[in-house]
Design a protein that fits this description.
- There is one protein chain.
- With 315 residues, the chain is of the alpha+beta class.
- It has nine helices and 13 strands.
- The strands form three sheets. Strands 1, 2, 3, 4, 5, 6, 7, 8 and 13 form a nine-stranded antiparallel beta sheet that branches. Strands 9-10 form a two-stranded antiparallel sheet.
- Strand 2 and strand 3 form a beta hairpin.
- It is globular and about 45 Å long.
- The termini are far apart.
- This is Techylectin-5A.
- Keywords: Membrane, Transmembrane, Transmembrane helix.
Length: 315
């Protein structure tokens, strides 16, 4: 019952905040409440965490359907619309994802150490970048020998969310590890400063063509230094786009020293422009500097699928 009330509260706040966009937000809210009640009446057999996650997924899908069924009263550029930040935070913070269990007493720091424990299937695992602070991550055990910890993913999923969020969201991380997410700058800082790391960018365009870039040295500074990026040692076939961002501070819409994040509508290590911008607007195949793009490959044309992943640099 308490969780149902929480869902009602979240749903109500979302509806109020988006009144300016929806003429029929009240209808969407009623649909959401009905969906939640219906889900409770069915009494699924899954446990409390799984049930909570299922309810959130239902709520998210219902709001997307409401938006499609009841369009805005005034034309709105879809790339300027955004999904409620509180709802995005709720999806990642209130209901933790179930992670693969590792043998009792183990404290793997990264996906390479998990792989060394003979867990070779890609998926969500629990690691310990700090000894007493578990962190759920998605491990890619298939690409180029495996052992990669994915720190960002963008692709098409129902109920997609825009990434034009504020500093606090990027600081702690947001999204769904099975779909789109940012792992969190604090987590990335910890992982890239406890051991030398490499980073891989996997890119796919709107036609399904793929490219990649690997940098043999990657780390970021802590928050007091604005998560400044240090990246070098390029290899791959996408073009050395990140060399233009080396040494740049991280910027978001609410902490934007050069207004690049504001203009490009997405957080990144931006100076005056962005040769690489993977937290932009999801508009595959569209030529727009605000899109998810890798300029040295497709200029400003939006990409369809991107992943950023790190692992300890082989000795």
């Amino acid at each position: 019952m308490l969780y149902t009330l929480l869902n009602y509260k979240v749903a109500f706040s979302i509806a109020i905040k988006n009144t300016q966009y929806f003429c029929f937000c009240g209808v969407g809210l009623l649909i959401l409440m009905a969906g939640i009640n219906a889900s409770e009446e069915k009494q699924p057999t899954c446990g409390p965490p799984e049930k909570s996650l299922a309810l959130l997924e239902i709520a998210e899908d219902l709001f997307v359907k409401a938006k499609e069924l009841y369009p805005t009263c005034e034309p709105i550029n879809p790339i300027e619309s955004n999904i409620d930040d509180d709802f995005l935070s709720l999806n990642s913070d209130v209901v933790p994802l179930n992670a693969e269990s590792i043998a009792a007493g183990d404290r793997p720091k990264n996906c390479v150490e998990i792989q060394g424990s003979k867990y070779n299937k890609s998926g969500v695992y629990t690691i310990y970048p700090k000894p007493d602070e578990p962190l759920n991550v998605y491990c890619d055990m298939d690409t180029d020998g495996g052992g990669w910890t994915i720190i960002q993913r963008r692709a098409y999923y129902p109920g997609m969310k825009y990434f034009n969020l504020g500093w606090s969201f990027y600081k702690r991380g947001f999204g769904n590890l099975e779909k789109q997410f940012w792992l969190g700058n604090d987590n990335i800082y910890t992982m890239t400063n406890q051991t030398p790391c490499e980073i891989r960018f996997d890119l796919e365009d709107a036609k399904g063509e793929r490219r990649f870039a690997v940098y043999k040295s990657f780390r970021i500074d802590d928050e007091s230094r604005n998560y400044t990026i240090h990246i070098k040692g390029y290899g791959g076939n996408a073009g050395d786009g990140m060399k233009f961002h080396d040494g740049q501070r991280f910027a978001t819409i609410d902490r934007d020293h050069l207004r690049g994040a504001t203009v490009l509508q997405g957080a990144w290590w931006i100076y005056e422009w962005a040769y690489v911008h993977l937290n932009g607007i999801y508009i595959p195949g569209i030529d727009d500097p605000r899109s998810i793009h890798w300029y040295l490959w497709h200029k400003n044309e939006g990409l369809a699928h991107v992943e950023m992943k790190i692992r300890p640099r082989p000795s």
